[in-house]
Amino acid sequence: MSSATVFFSKLLQAIRLLVGAIVILLFIYMSVAVLAQVVGRYLFSYSFSGSSETATFAQIWMVFLGAGLAMKQKLHVGVDLLYTVVPRPLKRFIAFVIMVGGVWFLWTAIAGSERLLQLGQFQTSSALGIPMWIPYMSIPVGIGYFLFEFLVAYVGKIIRPEDVSSAEKEESVS
């Protein structure tokens, strides 16, 4: 392996570890905030003003970042029947076409979030007055991470379609 390959492999692992840790922390925060709201309301007749709002924002961030983690684990629904039965040169072409279409779609979603971010600079949340660009930023960040994982998956299918096919066969057997 070249030093560049080792570097990018370690960078990929670090990014995945960071995103996974963030999702776990967001889940823990969301759970604690909702539990505090329920306990406060029903046991002490006291409502924490912003706990449900921040829990909602944590959930939004968690879902967008979690989509990229799901892409990494191949948990999104996909129809790959055609890809698995065609010869290797055609696999590369099909994977390339899928990659171009996916990149176009995801980039369009990221670009579309720009207007929402602009609006969020002038809006604040109702309970705590948090600038709305913070929860809105979950869209380009989460979709950007999804795009990153999507590219990793499909560049691998283009470069080594035989490796992907054998790995997929092993997964379906186990």
Tell me about this structure.
This protein has helices at residues 3-43, 51-72, 81-85, 88-120, 133-136, 138-159, 161-173. It has 174 residues and is mainly alpha-helical. It has one domain (3-173). Helix 4 (88-120) runs antiparallel to helix 6 and helix 6 (138-159) crosses helix 7. Residues 30-155 form the Tripartite ATP-independent periplasmic transporters DctQ component domain.
Describe this protein with a few key phrases.
mainly alpha; elongated; 174 residues; disordered C terminus
How is this structure best summarized?
By secondary structure, this protein is mostly helical. It contains 7 helices and no strands.
What layout of secondary structure does this protein have?
Blueprint: H1 3-43, H2 51-72, H3 81-85, H4 88-120, H5 133-136, H6 138-159, H7 161-173
Subunit structure: The complex comprises the extracytoplasmic solute receptor protein and the two transmembrane proteins.
Protein name: TRAP transporter small permease protein
Main location: membrane
Proportion of residues in β-strands: under 5%
For the termini, the CA-CA separation is 29 Å
Q: Give the helix level as a range of percent.
A: over 70%
Classify the secondary structure makeup into a structural class: mainly alpha
The backbone outline, from C-alpha atoms, is elongated
List low-confidence stretches.
Answer: 169-174
Largest sheet: none
Integer-rounded radius of gyration: 20 Å
- Listing every helix as H and every strand as E from the N terminus to the C terminus, the arrangement reads HHHHHHH
Count of domains:
1
The total of helices stands at: 7
Give the strand tally.
Answer: 0
The overall average pLDDT, rounded, is: 87
Pfam families: DctQ (PF04290)
Transmembrane segments: 55-72, 93-113, 133-155
Protein name: TRAP transporter small permease protein
Membrane topology: Multi-pass membrane protein
